[in-house]
UniProtKB/TrEMBL annotation:
InterPro entries: CTAG/Pcc1. It holds the Pfam family Pcc1. One of its GO terms (biological process) is tRNA threonylcarbamoyladenosine metabolic process. This is Transcription factor pcc1 like protein. Gene3D superfamilies: Alpha-D-phosphohexomutase, C-terminal domain. It comes from Zymoseptoria brevis. One of its GO terms (cellular component) is EKC/KEOPS complex. Belongs to the CTAG/PCC1 family.
Length: 112
């Protein structure tokens, strides 16, 4: 990839509780191609459980728009895993989500 043509870069790493869930996430998210020719995106697994997404873009605005779309899609994948996947157990995370922008607290994945 020509770094001079795509000078804006971001790497996002998302840990999953199991290798299977990380694999499901990468297969699900990689189905849709990046919409803009001004953005390049690649997915990989670091170790067995960390989804790594590398972005490069021609402008900071294009990078922001692409990453926002990625997080929307990732949120959908995570909610489906939480609600429907039999292997997902509500483990206490390594970090708190206090103060994280856009995070919805209180989802339990259980029927009322």
């Amino acid at each position: 990839m020509d770094e001079a043509a795509f000078p804006w870069a971001l790497t996002v790493r998302i840990p999953f509780p199991s290798a299977r869930l990380a694999s499901v996430a990468i297969r699900t998210l990689s189905v849709d191609p990046e919409l803009s020719p001004l953005v390049r995106r690649s997915f990989s697994l670091q170790g067995e459980t960390v989804l790594r997404t590398d972005y490069r873009a021609t402008t900071n605005r294009m990078l922001r728009v692409a990453v926002n779309g990625f997080f929307d899609s990732l949120g959908t994948v995570l909610h489906v895993m939480e609600d429907l996947d039999v292997d997902v157990v509500h483990h206490k995370g390594l970090e708190t989500l206090d103060g994280a922008q856009g995070v919805q607290q209180g989802r339990t994945g259980t029927a009322a």
